[in-house]
């Protein structure tokens, strides 16, 4: 049975290894951040696809980093001494207290993105998963907005379980799981490129 990730591994293997993509020729002055959408129902298959693509890129001699945002949040909680408390006492916390704790510890601009940039290091290409797992205390559009000032200098692919669209006035919208209210990326300079429609042309 067909799914949203059928054939995605071969397409990514082809696109992500091309010099035109690695040299970011098709993004003009935009930041080299790409969003690859997929159906939330295919999350388990998507993880296998990403793992295979990562191995393929390494075999081609590329420095690649794969970061799961949920795992990154757990690292932040552990570093700040909150992880054990959250794991042991989560059931007794109110949803608002848990939400506030996670949101404060993993605040994008001051905490999550600096740790993310550290994890990406000097890679030539980065693959980021876990967007759905950190919802609702962290939303992908806030991470995108925080990534711009961080000066990403290599292609970053964010795998997003939902829909990504852009309208005529330059606005960009992320709709997680395909059902939640769309989140608009307010600053047009923080737009990411939809990898589904990205056309690589040699310059």
What's the layout of helices and strands?
Layout: H1 8-16, H2 19-22, E1 33-38, H3 43-59, E2 64-68, H4 69-79, H5 83-89, H6 95-105, H7 108-120, E3 125-129, H8 140-147, E4 156-166, E5 172-176, E6 183-185, E7 193-194
Parallel strand pairs: 1-4, 1-7, 2-3, 3-4
Antiparallel strand pairs: 4-5, 5-6
Helix pairs in contact: 1-3, 4-7, 7-8
Describe this protein's structure.
This protein is of the alpha/beta class and 203 residues long. It is built from eight helices and seven strands; from the N terminus they run ααβαβααααβαββββ. Strands 1, 2, 3, 4, 5, 6 and 7 form a seven-stranded mixed sheet that branches. It starts with 7 loop residues before the first helix and ends in a 9-residue tail after the last strand. The mean pLDDT is 81.
Note the beta-strand portion: 15-25%
Rough outline? globular
The portion of residues assigned to helices is 25-40%
Structural class: alpha/beta
Q: What's the quaternary structure here?
A: single chain
Termini, distance in Å? 39 Å
